[in-house]
């Protein structure tokens, strides 16, 4: 199989959209990602996957911390900004959760310390120990088959 076919196959799995953020030398950096999952309740651990050519990789290594920000369906612009899909003239203003920069109004903000790191293929998996979290109500932004999507309840659920 070729790389494009593999990417298309992986794109069939619908995911939430996240912005990973970190701070190095007083400068905050963000990157859109969808490779994120929970790992453990005790201790509270999550994992993110960062490509080995991504600038964010060394930034997380330098800072030793990062945030995961689960975007709402109203935050497609934020996703596009940090994916480099759309240019904005204004500088993005991050909020803070503890010592970590976070995206304002994200459905979930997780402030993490790097707990472990694993090199796997052309990506690095960062295991983060969740130190603080904040939750908001709303529906998540979804990505599937190369497109942004929203959750929609099936008709049979709506009619009940």
TrEMBL record:
Pfam families: Flavin_Reduct. Gene3D superfamilies: Electron Transport, Fmn-binding Protein, Chain A. SUPFAM superfamilies: FMN-binding split barrel. Residues 10-150 form the Flavin reductase like domain. The keyword Transferase does not apply. Coiled coil: none annotated. Keywords: Oxidoreductase. This is Flavin reductase (DIM6/NTAB) family NADH-FMN oxidoreductase RutF. PANTHER family: FLAVIN REDUCTASE, FMN REDUCTASE (NADH) RUTF. InterPro entries: Flavin_Rdtase-like_dom, NADH-dep_flavin_reductase, Split_barrel_FMN-bd.
């Amino acid at each position: 199989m070729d790389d494009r076919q593999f990417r298309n196959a992986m794109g069939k799995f619908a995911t939430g959209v996240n912005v990973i953020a970190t701070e190095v030398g007083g400068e905050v950096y963000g990157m859109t990602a969808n490779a994120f999952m929970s790992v453990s309740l005790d201790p509270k651990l999550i994992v993110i996957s960062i490509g080995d050519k991504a600038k964010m990789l060394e930034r997380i290594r330098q800072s030793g911390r990062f945030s995961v920000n689960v975007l709402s369906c109203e935050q497609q612009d934020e996703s596009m900004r940090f994916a480099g899909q759309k240019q904005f003239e204004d500088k993005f203003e991050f909020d803070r959760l503890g010592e970590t920069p976070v995206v304002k109004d994200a459905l979930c903000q997780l402030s993490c310390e790097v707990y472990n790191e694993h090199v796997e293929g052309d990506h690095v998996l960062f295991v983060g120990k969740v130190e603080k979290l904040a939750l908001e109500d709303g529906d998540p932004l979804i990505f599937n088959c190369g497109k942004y999507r929203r959750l929609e309840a099936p008709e049979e659920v709506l009619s009940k």
